[in-house]
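Page 47, continued from p. 46.
Same chain as before, 630 aa.
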Amino acid sequence: MSQIPQTNPATTLGGRYKVISQLGAGGFGQTFLAQDLHLPGHPRCVVKRLLPQTNDDKSLQMARRLFDTEARALYQLGSHHQIPALFAHFEENQEFYLAQEFIEGESLNRQLRKGKIWPEDQVIALLRDILQVLAFVHQQQVIHRDIKPSNLMRRRKDGRIVLIDFGAVKQVSTQSANPDTGVTDLTVSIGTQGYIPNEQLAGKPRFSSDVYAVGIIGIQALTGIHPKRLGEHPDTGEIDWRDRTSDVSSELAEILECMVRYDFRDRYPTAVEALEAFETLPAGAVEFLPPLPEFIDPPLDSLSGAETTASEIMSAATDAFTPSDTTVQISISALESETASYQFRSDELNGSHSAEPDSAPDQPQSSAKLELQPIRKRRLAKLGFGLGLVGLVTAGTTFVALQTGAFLEPVSSPVETVGSEAGNPAVPVIRSIAAPALPVPEEWAAKLQNRGDRLRQNGQFQQALEAYNSLLALSPVRAEAHWGRCHSLTYLQQPAEAVVACDDALAINPNYAEAYWSRGRAYREQGRSLQSLRLFERATQLKPDLIGAWVDLGITLQSFGRSVEAISALDRAIALDRNSVEAWATRGEALWNLGRFDQAIASLDKALQIQPDHPQAAPLRQQARERLGY
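Result:
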């Protein structure tokens, strides 16, 4: 194991990233909180240093190629809003660095490790959220390889799960090569005990290995028991967990058991299939995890009353991995626990890190809520402190200024002493006093919603997306804005992102017909026509006058050769809107397919009246005329 070099605060890495503090260190390298000196305002980011385990030229060249390959993969994955964006990757002094987006939030490890039992609906919401982003990862042909609670962050601003710390990057540090052949040895297993199946332990991970880990997290949440403490059935070798909880439906239990099968061939092959299984659960069971309470994790830039120093941030970054969450590297003798990832948990920065020992993982407690330091909210209205909100929308730019006199007052003193180990003095932790998140006035929200809708209806989908994003950054629980994102992303040919956005809308409003419709369009773009057909049917059931859903239902039925049913759906669409060119054109195609050429020509003529340059109607009309001998 190579010696980890020390980096002092105020060091600038890559000529650009000024180190504020070290967030953690381990066998793979170090993680720093830094400022980007090349951008206005010097925003915070996270810089991760990866340390190759050997210094010979061949191995270093191989590590460099592997690093470049993995960095390109991370850059592509970072386009998903539940994966930290990769800003840059570079090499300095034969060491490799990644600069990534800084995420404020709380590790799922912190919510699970006290052994508390989660109710089923919250477990479903959690797993569904994880699988949505993991499905995107698998569709990019990437295996995460280290799915575990400490690599899942619950983002403060919207409560969504963010997937971090991809195991593939760790190959840069752990890979070795045969000096004669130059072949890289990738049999080193990267993962965490309890969360990785046997094939991954053998150094042969598959997409279903990630599915296994997600299923284990679900079982851990339902039982309150760490996976290393779960036994195996003596005859089958399967995980024996059903007797540890009685409050779980048979439908969810069957899905989880399929996810954690001993034989990878018996599991869902990828996260996509696992997510589809969750979609078969009753709609009422699918809820969405709410955002973190405002007082648990205030934004760094909103801190008031005391400046946050590097030493304070370091004190908040020492608890990413617990003793029961040890990273496994087969053939690597001395393991050092990697103590930080892409985030530090600002709930600890605020002083909620308790000096009391954690509950043992095999002692479940029936509670799904975080135990939070109670904080009272006071307003000084009589002293002239006011609440103001100014909104300015100009030519695609949204400017929001928030001003408040409200503040949060801890019940106890802002300065506390965190417990110390023997021989070490107690460490004072300064608890920040921060302004709470302000409610967004409905009038302002309506203006942003209307702006996005207007841009979307005019076909300006990128600008519409920006308007919806602005609204959701202020008020994330708005189904209409999430649907607007979904619709826009579909037209921008980003179906995977569109599905996530529609799922967000449906999590808020399970009977949102437009969201089912747009989700079906996104699925069709992904080649998942059967699933899209079911979604279009659901949309028309919920809202019989939804024209677009009837048109897309007819188009999809026709793609399956079900022409009679397609004509019926398209007639419904035409009855609602006689100027729907796609309805007329597809109706003509269906009639042509049934050999009813006269009627096909009439429908295609109508389509060409509405759109004379329709690409399919004109040639199909000519073929129908030829069949009739015209």
